[in-house]
Design brief:
Helix content is 35%, strand content 19%. With 126 residues, it is α+β, with helices and mostly antiparallel strands. Strand 1 and strand 2 form a beta hairpin. Helix 1 packs across helix 2. The radius of gyration is 16 Å and the shape is globular. 17% of the residues are buried.
């Protein structure tokens, strides 16, 4: 298997993702990283995000018709507000643990689980 090198672009994308808790889209990441790496393209951001997600180094969350990204790959859940669209992390290990233990599908060995709750947050101003 070909080992991919850690490019400046990939490093800056990872640094940005690790610095925020907002689950940004590729376009938001592109806007932030472009300030530090002016030559970066949106295609490069997408390519690197997909590589990192496919390698399990970040999470790729599909919400509606767009992807959001999360550098926290530890077991946790997400709460998505259907009104304002914000995504919040919830760290209740017992939920993910329960789901991993209770899955019963013959011939399948799960390695991870993503739990996403949809509802409405308390922010009345949205």
């Amino acid at each position: 298997m070909m080992k991919r090198r850690l490019t400046v672009q990939k490093l800056k994308i990872l640094e940005y993702l690790r610095s925020v808790k907002t689950h940004p889209t590729a376009e938001i990441i592109y806007g932030a990283v472009k300030k530090q790496v002016p030559t970066i393209t949106l295609a490069t951001v997408y390519r690197n995000l997909n590589l990192l997600a496919n390698k399990g180094e970040i999470l790729r969350l599909e919400m509606g018709n767009e992807f959001h990204f999360d550098a926290d790959i530890g077991r946790h859940q997400h709460c998505v507000c259907r009104k304002c669209g914000k995504i919040h992390d919830v760290f209740q290990k017992e939920i993910s643990k329960y789901a991993m233990e209770k899955i019963n599908y013959d011939g399948f060995n799960p390695t991870n689980v993503q739990v996403i709750f949809y509802g409405y947050c308390k922010n009345k101003n949205m």
